[in-house]
Write a structure and sequence with these properties.
2-enoyl-CoA Hydratase, Chain A, domain 1, alpha/beta, 8-stranded mixed sheet, 516 residues, 3 domains, 19 strands
Length: 516
Amino acid sequence: MFDVPSSDLRKKEKGEGGKSEPVRIDVKNENGEMSIARRRLGMLFDDGTFEEIGAGVIHRAADFGLEKKRIPGDGVVTGSGEVNGRVVFAYSQDRGVMGGSLGEAHAKKITRVQDLAMRAKVPLVGINDSGGARIQEGIDSLGGYGEIFRRNVLASGVCPQISMVLGPCAGGAVYSPALTDYVVMVRKQSYMFLTGPKVVKTVTFEDVDSETLGGADVHGRTTGLAHMVYKDDEAAIAGVRQLLGYLPQSYLERPPYMETNDPIERDCSGLDTAIPESSRQIYDVKKILKEVLDRGTFFEIQKNWAKNIVIGYARLGGYSVGIIANQPAMMAGVLDCNASRKASRFIRSCNAFNVPILSFVDVPGFLPGTGQEHNGVISHGAKLMFAYCEATVPKLAVILRKAYGGAYIVMSSKHVGADVNLAWPTAEVAVMGAAGAVEVLFRKEIAGSTNQEQATTIKVEEYENKFLNPSRAMERGYVDAVIAPSDTRAKLYRHLKSHFNKVEDYPDKRNGNIPT
């Protein structure tokens, strides 16, 4: 795959006596082994489809001894090929060549494949494994990063951009992955931070290692920067190949349809008993998702961060869909700052690439407390609302159980633009739960009764019978139908097909102003 043909020969500028001497481009390291950068590309692309470009590029810097290190390729392998039969452009940094450091020529190779991917309207996969900016090239290195960042922004929403961080990625280099659609990391191998452990210790006197400062689990569990975290290169690259299967080549296309042998009308009777009798009991929403969606197709994103909400891609009747589901098994499924950030970003990703959105709702509200308020839960909750309002792809929602207060509005309600809203018989659509409502509405009446406990119980039951069910929402047209849980798969599929050609226009403007 990576053998260089005889035509790919470069000429030394001047050999001894001024003669030009043909030199084969080095595709292997000094031990005669294929470089890890090339092996990674070999795993990413279908066999025999990769075509390298820019293999003979060398830097033109001459300071600090660089004139003696003019290595073809300049530490990055670039080109295009096919992933599952569809064209993808990619670059792979080679830490075995000058530490994979980024200089002017290195950056130009990356920006070239960025430009080519944009023109061809196909995905770009970047494999990052670099020591950072090439100090010897000074401002040219910094300028190179800026050119890459600008193209990341220009390509955002045009064609999918996936960043694989399979080694160190520090300083300004971290901003390119952060600007792309998805970041993939490997445990005990990938690191992302603006300032490394030595600088941190010098400035703040904090003694910390690379793993603790910016390892894969830090970004997979604490910051949310890493969308997928894997055990090794092979698993990470297999994950990227799978992810690309849910996405179109660009915003101009729909995601690819995949034939399925999972019948739409299959038996889903297990869903009829999926919700516990008590509204205070927890359950795992992923079990419901696996029953509703095509078997084995749910591909979870950011599964270790903000676990109170579940997001990911899946298929329904062979069609690619985006999933957003409150998770009652974690923090009762409440929305908080991180859950709102996680869901809103995913909604915008789905909308950018024509992926319909299915929302599964069981949310008691937003998490209260000074911690949330001071961390900006208002702004982050507004991001989620903004994302649902802004999205023009088909939006279907199923209320499984609780849908209370402002969280009901935010979670793909009719009021923020959902196309179809279904509810299970267990749905509770209300301003708040019964206990809180009774405390507000009947406090004086209960306080004046001779048996306050009995009076409270009566009022709670009265409130539950009147409000904690989907009937009032149906009367107002906010819920389109109350369905048997076992019918959810078939009904979502039919509604999805009905709205597949949906077109929704928004006012002309330069851009919306998303909350901070």
